[in-house]
Write a structure and sequence with these properties.
Layout lengths: L4 H7 L3 H15 L20 E10 L5 E11 L5 E9 L4 E9 L5 E10 L2 E10 L3 E8 L3 E8 L6 E3 L3 H4 L14 E4 L2 E3 L13 E2 L3 E13 L2 E11 L10 E6 L6 E7 L9 E9 L1
Parallel strand pairs: 9-11
Antiparallel strand pairs: 1-2, 1-17, 2-3, 3-4, 4-5, 5-6, 6-7, 7-8, 10-13, 11-12, 13-14, 14-15, 15-16, 16-17
Helix pairs in contact: 1-2
Length: 282
Amino acid sequence: MNIGRRQLIVAGLTGAAGTALAAASAHINSGGDGDLSQTKAAPIGQGFVKNTRGRISYIGDDGKERGREWFGISRREDGQVTLRAYCEIDDARVERDVVQSMTPKFEPLDCFVRLHVGGKFSGTGWMRFTATEAECEVYSIVLGRVQQRIQLPIAPTTLVSHPISTDALLLSRYDHSKPERIQTWRGGLATSTQLDGGSGPFLSLDGERSLEYVGPEPITTAAGRFDTHHYRLLMGTRADGKTPSYDLWCTHPDYLIIRGEVRGYLKNRTGYGRYDLVEYSG
């Protein structure tokens, strides 16, 4: 007699769980609406999820590449958005994997982050967000195994998980129906307190952020010519008295980053760096 894998799983369960799984298994085997053999796949080339992919080049003040990022974005039928990114920062030797899922308004739902720093594993963490709470399960070489639960004063609005592709999603908080050129929002969180995201992962409240709309501007990179909107994230003054700035150019309404420029930000001679979209398909 041939015993299928589903039968072995059911056999290992007892009580209500085993009864429920056995009933579900029988329903599937009888050709019910869960019968995978009768599921119709989408035709090749006509996927039901909108997927875009790209690569960002990190460029230093000397004009040379100092890092790179590959990312993909899936926009699903229920409106949820998932962004996957792999980042390399050469000078800081930070390597990061991120999978971040969000609502249609780019509000965080859950996120996975894995870090290597200096060529060695640093930490990994999984996070989940509700309207009132953020939870995080972390394992890192600094903290060990840690569980976080943060009661949120307001529903979460943004998550800084540190890929450049997710930075552009912060710009969605700007409300173009309002007359104010500079707008603020709260409810943000971050996975690292370091500018390059090289610590943790560990959740912290991001405080208040301010965003200025500069205006529409066409931008040309190696990926092509794009009609973008130019924004400026207003940064607070640092302990050394310097005030860094972060300008971003993105498309609407998907907030695809085309270019970013930072000043007084990086640990190089001038503090300047640029982020260019150099490959794109979607």
